[in-house]
Structure prediction request, 378 residues.
Amino acid sequence: MTIADLSRRRLLQALAAGTLASALPPAMAGATSAAGAAVDGGVDGLVERAMVIDMLAPLKIDFRPEAYAGHLTEAQAADFRASGITVMHHAIGFQGHEAHEQVLAYLAAWNGFIARNSEVFCLAGNVADLDRAKAQGRVAVIMGVQNADHFRTAEDVKVFHQLGQRCAQLTYNSQNYLGTGGTERVDSGLSDYGVQIVAAMNAAGMLVDVSHCGDRTTLDAIEASSTPIAITHSNCRALNDHPRLKTDEAIRKLAAKGGVMGITGVRNFVRAREPTTVEHVVDHIDHVAQLVGVEHVGIGSDADLHGYDDMPADQLKMLRGLYKSSYAFRDRLDTDGFDAPDKFRNLVAALARRGYSDGDIALVLGGNFRRLLGEIWG
Prediction:
């Protein structure tokens, strides 16, 4: 690491944490231990100061129309406020020939939900909206889609951007016209049409996401994009041999172009055996930080505030049935200590115990993704 790299990291830390102290040399900034996190108000104080971005977080994992048709209860609003989360990337998947119409309806439904609950949420269109949400104590919502089947032509990318979409996965788990999903038997890579869609997303200022893409499609997309891209919610295959996770090669190439990888708390992605706790989530953060630098890792929990295991039994059964056996679901989907509205506080405490400085924790919590979104959204 060069002196220039260190200076850049300290500047990012200062911006992420909202304090110049994070940019000072270590001798002046204090210890980088769990005790260090307590200097300025402990875990709560750090979460309160930082911009916390969950780069894959549906507002509600609920498949009923009632989920978006009304107002939050007082208890639900209190959970969002107490979570400390500043930004949630609300995205679900659509595929097939009806995807275009389904995504139009999805955007209308959830934009309406955000508007009806404007005391808690605001729609995110640019980074100024993220900063405003932080200042006002609201949650900025990034509207995304976990697939790109709704783009019938490259021209559709601009149309959906104008309707509020700010992020799109190129594929979900299976093959589409753009490329190959992570659980397909053979990955043929990004198609010519996929290259066109990536170029259209670059031009529109829409973040390219390859979280569910296969290995070759992931690498092709990183190379094809003229801007940095994201893995909003995945983990490291070096720690857990699972087809939905990313190789070290992909992580290195993502970082080399300025991209950011969000670490997920889905239990079978975190660890293949028990116990599976928030400490094992930090193992994946550690791996990315040691491999390419802490400036390239964030969080994409891939769950709402309460997680999957609290879903109604019939909905959870239906959800599990949508995935191949290679997903290797176990009895539970959520990770211990990362499955409730206080998940980010538990994560901060675990990062501090692991020796991360307040400044680096602020980068992981959201500073890195805010930087990336600023570059993409303009």
The two ends are 28 Å apart (CA to CA). The first strand starts at residue 53 and ends at 54. The chain has a mean pLDDT of 92.
